[in-house]
Q: What sequence folds into this?
């Protein structure tokens, strides 16, 4: 069996004005050696933290597929324990998030993926990118190196 490369995506969401406000997403896609392959940051408008996290996951899947890395395993790291739980067991997601959860799972259908909960402090660089995305006028994606 071929050795399949695993990529780790660190997504940290940020929402300013309390539990509902301007949101930004940002992340770092790296390999098992901690090499950075892609960094991204963008504004997603006014949103709640859980929706922001789900939108970020959908954005990354789109990027991942567009880079033609579908044969690679991807590990999502999220600091939102609810989102991790809902993606592992979609029947537990509240009705208000069902469409976003189903959209994420539908997007994930063509890739090998897993998700794990991590503390926000595990990746301050991704947190910085997410915060920068809040006021970003244009999306920012940089492909540092190909896998």
A:
């Amino acid at each position: 069996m071929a050795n399949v490369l695993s990529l780790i995506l660190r997504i940290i969401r940020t929402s300013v004005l309390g539990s509902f406000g301007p949101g930004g997403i940002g992340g770092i896609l790296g390999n098992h050696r901690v090499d950075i392959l892609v960094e991204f940051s963008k504004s997603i408008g006014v949103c709640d933290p859980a929706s922001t996290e789900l939108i970020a996951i959908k954005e990354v899947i789109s990027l991942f597929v567009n880079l033609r890395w579908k044969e690679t395993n991807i590990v999502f790291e999220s600091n939102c324990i609810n989102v991790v739980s809902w993606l592992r067991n979609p029947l537990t997601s509240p009705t208000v998030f069902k469409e976003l959860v189903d959209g994420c799972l539908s997007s994930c259908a063509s890739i090998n993926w897993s998700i794990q909960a991590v503390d926000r402090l595990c990746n301050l660089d991704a947190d910085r990118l997410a915060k920068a995305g809040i006021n970003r006028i244009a999306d920012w994606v940089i492909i540092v190196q190909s896998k």
Summary: The two ends are 19 Å apart (CA to CA). The chain has one domain: 6-143. The chain has a mean pLDDT of 80.
